[in-house]
Amino acid sequence: MKYLFACLPTALLCSVPFMAFNAYSADATQCEVEFVVLGIGQDGGAPQIDRHDDPAWKNPSQRLFAASGALIDHRNGDRYLFEATPDIREQLFALNEIAGKADNDDPLGLAGVFLTHAHIGHYAGLLFAGHESAGSKNLRVFAMPRMKNYLESNGPWDQLVRYSNIALSPIHDKDAVTLGESVSVTPHRVPHRDEYSETVGFVITGPSKSILFLPDIDAWDRWETEFGTRIEDMIAAVDVAYLDATFFDNNELPGRDMSAFPHPRLLDSMQRFASLPDEEQDKVRFFHINHTNKVRFETSEQYQAMKSRGFKLAGQNERVCLD
Ligand SMILES: [Zn+2]
Ligand SMILES: [Zn+2]
């Protein structure tokens, strides 16, 4: 199936940061396989629960859903969700608005779900596949071995397995999962706070382009020392890289020891990537933004600092053509 959406005919990437899901119209092109960003927030989203002074409560355009995306193969109608977040209801509504009604038997309209790890923003939404909500039948959920075992062995997740709402498919580090003609997903283990599961990022490959989806990592250096992977090599291997930018710098959580929250700081990442050629820097799209990270507001110093260095945030509902 072919379909239309709004971006320049030759553009790989159509960006509509902070805008609502119905912002697509005018310019049209055709794309057979695409990735759409469905959330750019940290696990708890923004505004965060109990932060009643956050302007996003009264200005929904400033809301950030938890980091998520969907791979859509328009040739066969398959849709794969990356992360089942606490915002899954709104995110699947947005996906439906963007891609139209899915033509399959799953009540969520999905051919499968890929999970990076067992932290709230990345898998809590899986419960909506269950008996009390959508009641999916054997929805494929792709998970690493520890993550799979965790879901099978602990309530409430094990009920999804016992009721056959989900069917778990094991995935393995650096082992590509083929999803269709010239479409695959490859997990890459990363260092993170792995209480219940491993943590991975995904390389999502379409017929001629690919993206890196990496919402959570503790440190770029540790990826290299512990897993032998250099972030610069990963950026070089893809066309667009969605990267963890949870915090802007170490001044963000007054009164709290930020060493307990080991994510690469956006400021440090920009410094690290500053020596890359322009075309490599252009691939980077920061996401997984914490509610405290002022980069989420276009009027902030932090956003302006990022922009002046030539870096970008991912946009909610941004689309990448993988043809
Ligand atoms: Zn996270
Ligand atoms: Zn995490």
Explain what this protein looks like in three dimensions:
The protein is of the alpha/beta class and 323 residues long. The chain has a single domain, classed as Metallo-beta-lactamase, Chain A (4-Layer Sandwich), CATH 3.60.15. Helices cover 20% and strands 23% of the residues. It has nine helices and 17 strands. The longest helix is centred in the first third of the chain and has 12 residues, at 88-99. The chain starts with a strand and ends with a strand. It binds zinc ion (ZN) (2 copies).
Number of helices: 9
Shape: globular
Q: Which structural class do you get from the secondary structure elements? A: alpha/beta
From the coordinates shown, what is the CATH architecture?
4-Layer Sandwich
User: Which residues form runs of ≥5 with pLDDT under 50?
Assistant: 1-11, 14-28
Mean pLDDT, to the nearest integer, reads 91
Q: Could you give the distance between the termini?
A: 14 Å
Radius of gyration: 18 Å
Tally of strands: 17
Number of domains: 1
Bound molecules: zinc ion
The CATH class name reads Alpha Beta
Question: What sequence of helices (H) and strands (E) makes up the elements?
Answer: EEEEEEHEHEHHEEEEEHHEHHEHEE
CATH H-tier superfamily: Ribonuclease Z/Hydroxyacylglutathione hydrolase-like
The biggest sheet amounts to: 8 strands, mixed
- What is the percentage of strand-forming residues? 15-25%
Helical content stands at 10-25%
CATH topology: Metallo-beta-lactamase, Chain A
